[in-house]
């Protein structure tokens, strides 16, 4: 990522607080103009005013609830039509942690819309322009919970696993065209998402909790380094590479003409 005085425009979703607001701050200081998207107009306006004053960058706000089709369509249209957009940060998301059987299914449906449908549609909207201009970046905020198979994490972890998979595939599809896609997998980060998640972050050991500014700064350092997957807490990237290598080793045996002999199914000739 260039640190020049004009890097184009970054559109950041979920920008009014937490990770999104911190990305907005850091990107403005890196020379990006901003389009900030969130539901809370008052918070957006306050952040935009501060960033204009402190950085001198152009900062627009777009009030939208990305779970609502009409609002999502407004943001999609912005991404399609504004040729100055060089960076999309898909940060907006929500978490519901708890057993599926006792969950509010409508809440989970909204979570899937926000965590999966919205970033998919927004990426689809921005990609043709980025590819045609041969320049651009998509950052998808996933989660380390995408890698954790544990009770209470079925839907949230599943949505973040989807976002990780999408990011890795997209980077393969558009990397040669000059577009980079990064997935960021934060661990427990001190943001407002916990307040309605069903889990209390204050019950976690302090050694597990990262402050949001450190998380975003690490994610941007990973982006600068060209990482496709950035795990800010992971000390040794070789651990992640071993995971990728193990998955790749499975591939030759994932699809064969006949079932594996261990199942005792006679092959039909």
Automatic annotation (TrEMBL):
Oxidoreductase is among the record's keywords: yes
Keywords annotated in UniProt: Oxidoreductase
Keyword Oxidoreductase attributed: yes
Signal sequence, renumbered to the chain: none
Database matches in InterPro entries: NAD(P)-bd_dom_sf, SDR_fam
GO molecular function: oxidoreductase activity
Pfam families in the record: adh_short
Family named by the database record: Belongs to the short-chain dehydrogenases/reductases (SDR) family.
Name of protein: SDR family oxidoreductase
Organism: Pararobbsia silviterrae
Taxonomic placement: Bacteria, Pseudomonadati, Pseudomonadota, Betaproteobacteria, Burkholderiales
